[in-house]
Amino acid sequence: MPTVTWQPLSNQLNSSFWLNKAYSIVLLALDGLFSFRYARRILMAEQTKLAVLQPTDVTTGQQIRVHQKIKELNTKGEEKGRIQVFEGLVLTVQGSGISRTMTVRKIAEGVGVERIYPINSPIIDKIELVRKMKTSRKHIGYVRTSKKRLKEIKSTK
Question: In this structure, are 67 and 39 located in the same domain?
Fold first, then answer.
């Protein structure tokens, strides 16, 4: 079992926040998945409730989080499942019906990473909407090389 040392992550988080989330931190530490680098992201994501999208609602120009189910084998040969989150910008949505796909792009450590997901795949656990960008095209591949930023659409609540 890995050893876990506690270090304060941020002065923004008050002690009552940590007391409420102590149980989830202990579970992460017991699973061996605990990393203080990602603990803040996980806990802050719990605070901000994002809209869950239906697969038919995904459009070009949305910043989304795709929760993907991954099955792995451990050293004993047992199958273990986990959820991996991929957050990026939807470049295009292609096809129709069951063969519909979406291309999602993110920048990871200075390198662009693109994934093509079948929208109706059982591997996708859920899709969360982070924000919407203003686009006038179906395919925004020009974002790969463009220095300009897309404008965000302000949500009216």
Answer: no
Q: Can you give the pTM of this predicted structure?
A: 0.64
Cβ atoms 88, 94 nearer than 8 A: no
Nearest in space to 149 (alpha carbons), one of 140, 157, 113: 140
Distance CA 7, CA 25 (A): 13
Q: For 70-116, how does the pLDDT look when each residue is reduced to its tens digit (9 = 90+)? A: 999 888 888 989 999 999 999 999 998 899 999 999 999 889 999 99
Residue in this structure with the two tokens 């920048």, named with its chain if needed: 107
Q: Are residues 19 and 63 located together in one domain of the fold? A: no
Phi, psi of 142 (to 5 degrees): -65, -15
Q: What are phi and psi of 89, to 5 degrees?
A: -95, 135
